[in-house]
Amino acid sequence: MATASTTQERAAELNVLARKQRSLWGDALYRLMRNRAAVGGLIVIAAAFLVAIFAPQLAPYDPIAIPQNPSTQMEPVWTGSKYVDSRYLLGTDFLGRDIISRLIYASRISMVVGFIPTFIVFALGVTVGMSAGFFGGWLDQLLMRFTDIIYAFPDFLFLLIIVASFRNSPFGKIMDGLMLIFVAIAIVGWVGVARLTRGQVLALKEREFVEAARSVGASSGRIMSKHLLPNALAPLIVTAAFAVPSAILGEATLSFLGVGIIPPTPSWGQMINEGFPLFSSNPWAVLMPGICISVVMLAFTFVGDGLRDALDPRMKT
Amino acid sequence: MCDCVAVYTSKTVLKYTIRRLLLMIPTLFFVSLITFGLAKAAPGSPFDKNPDKPARQATIDRWNAYYGLDKPVHEQYIQYMGNVLKFDFGTSVRRNRPVSEIIASGFPITAQLGMQALLLALAVALPLGVISALKQNTMIDYGSLFFATVGTTIPSFVMAIFFIYIFGLGLKLFPITGWGTPQHMVMPTVILALGAAAFLARITRASMLEAIRQDYVRTARSKGLREQVVIVGHVLKNAMIPVATVVGPAAAGLITGSFIIETFFSVPGIGREYVTSILALDYPVIMATTLLYAFFIIVANLSVDLVYGMLDPRIKVAK
Predict the structure, then answer these.
(1) What is the pLDDT of residue B120?
(2) Torsion of CA B229, B233, B238, B244, to 10 degrees
(3) Are the beta carbons of A122 and A193 closer than 8 angstroms?
(4) A241/chain B closest Cα distance in angstroms
(5) Cα–Cα distance, A290 to A138 (Å, whole number)
(6) What are the residue ranges spanned by the domains of chain A?
(7) Domain A32-63+72-314 falls in which CATH fold?
(8) A293–B38 C-beta distance less than 8 A
């Protein structure tokens, strides 16, 4: 109890300002909040979440149903062409569906696909990587050989092969193909996280505090969860922050190639795929989802950069 | 004396290279196994692609027998790998052409696109990274950092859309799709290069900033060397070492990027061939191209490790 007040008193005596004490994590949060780009990114991500949650309230039209008498594809109101309808601010797609409504509903896919696979990847990767690094032996050997093989595959190729192979199976139809994308991203991604965790654990387990914990009789499970994990957390958080946009990118690219989300459910990548054949006659049906992807990806990157700088100032690149 | 050391070193490097090359065999073997397994696990066959006009069962059976697809999967795999060892990569199911022919016609195009993009990326990234490090925290620096962030973040196919809109549809400077004339090559090359350029510029800047703060740079300045000599002879020389090591991963990124860009711009390279063969379950093409790509990635990684050892005398090859 005395420490803080003594520090204050000593500071008053010496007529200097005492700095408020902060924990390591509090310090990191403070640094993150002072990073304007990261805060801007967080605001954009929060807004995207709200849009995704309240999509039914926000969307003016049904994103999927094709209107009764689909007229020609409408262009956005500001283009001033004769194919403009004030009811559709951003125009309509090739089937006459309102583009704003489809963009709003598509945000749901991107938000979900960013976070759920990342969660699976980390649960699996951290568990395996930690066990391999801590216990060594055959598990470690197996993991290292396995990562060598996976690293020879370019990530996106592997993702594409898995998705293309199973998209016609019953599993590929669950949740409009979303389930398959979750699993595929998790299969491709967990190895990198396992390898990173392993490296961290290998370095940490030789340190004195682990030896100290062991000498007072802490179990392996306790050492892993109470000593190794918290110390390995900073680089893992940064990796997770970048895993989210790369998962969003994966879904968008698969859908753009026509093997991602099954139509008519809208996703930004898929809207680009559908609109592209008519790009020259109505570019905005393609540009708008492109802008949405870009803004969300930039927001996540700014947050990731901010987290990296905040958690470890030395890791700056 | 000096010769002895050199012989000893090159021998070690040679041994290391051979060991790494041998390790490539099991890796490629497993890559082929995984790819084959996944391609075979796929429901459907390459012959039922047109749902409106399903082929008769007898016809499908005949095709299956012709391509050896009626045998058990493990037999197919063994037969396939046996042929691969004889450099026979089979026949494309979709196009009924030898796979080696497809690769021979597509590979030069992909290689050209990739090399152009890599050279462009280096030509843009190195000066940009160096200048922004020398003018740290100026508008030039912020501008190039912004370029680096945007370039690494925005997906290539989205970037391609923006480029087509501005330069293809708006200004009508370049044709939108196709390949062959120099005008056709501009947009695919630029967009493919963009991601790599942004990545390399970021590394160059960081590496320059690191080198500028070193003691030997202070020493060089304090003994009165001209600023140009300090920058070129001391800073730049050392700053390029980390940059050289990421050229490999950047090249691997270009390889992956080429699938999307070739598909987008209808460039007849193996990247587009690969995407279409995966979508059509044309497994002989999938297998051959996957192995080819895996081979290049392994070689890229190996050459980076070797170049690193050559550039930086502090790095010793293990064992």
Answers:
(1) 93
(2) 120
(3) yes
(4) 13
(5) 46
(6) 32-63+72-314
(7) MetI-like fold (1.10.3720)
(8) no
